[in-house]
Amino acid sequence: MTKSRRRWRRWVALLALLGAALLAKGYWNATRDPVIRTATVGVAGWPAGQPPLRLLLLSDIHVAGPDMPPERLERIVGELNRLKPDLVLIAGDLVSEKRTATHIYTAGQVVAPLAGLRAPLGVVVAPGNHDHWFKPDALRGEMEKLGLRVLQNEAIRRGPLIVGGVDDDFSGHDDIAATFAAMDRLGPGVPLLLTHSPDIVPDLPRPVAAVFAGHTHCGQIRFPVVGAISYVSRYGDRFACGDMVDGKQRVFVGAGLGTSIVPLRYLTPPDIWLVTVGPSGKE
Length: 283
Prior knowledge:
This is Phosphohydrolase. InterPro entries: Calcineurin-like_PHP, Metallo-depent_PP-like, Metallophosphoesterase_sf. GO terms for molecular function: hydrolase activity. This protein has 6 helices and 14 strands. By secondary structure, it is α/β, with parallel strands linked by helices. The protein has 2 domains: 1-31; 33-279, 4-Layer Sandwich (Purple Acid Phosphatase, chain A, domain 2), CATH 3.60.21.10.
């Protein structure tokens, strides 16, 4: 074997090793424990004598093998209960049917771990696009069996909060007008919106105390300098990730717990948001 051929083989072996290491790192990133991010929302006119409430935002759980089997979700739920939230908000995409999945679970298997969530004001869910593409009626049925409240262009009162759930914008199931009408029928309260895609924000008729969303995965795969491959949003990176103010609207967009398309993450760890809502301090 010539010297040049040996050198070429060494380079091929090195590149293969680096590629394997990169994939392993991406998979480790995708399966690590979620980062717990915290924020406070001050509300003018917060009811006198009402203690602040802790809201836990989960999004993009994407139950599927190999990276998010139900057993992993069950373990995460146990950890999140230690945060003692008053209300849990789930911003859609409970399931994944990605082609790279090693196992697709039934609706019952997807939802079962969420029965372990503990919050005095309950668990509220707004469906995502993958939920609609999977088995939406089966998923909703399983959630309702377990006492999870599914909102599809509907609203519900939880303590001093009026929670509106806008159905998924990405798959064309949203109805903002119907959601706000449902909120108005519930009377006075602190208005919040739960939805899968943050792309509804520019179309809101008026600001609410906060909008809770997911869908973007914060890019899921981001590169230094270049940034994310996509945020799957018609507004580009306007609602890419995290805690932001868009005009007069406070918006929280979670990175999610699971993955879409491939079970890899780079520079976008899984996360959840623990948001304390209470008096503004200016009263």
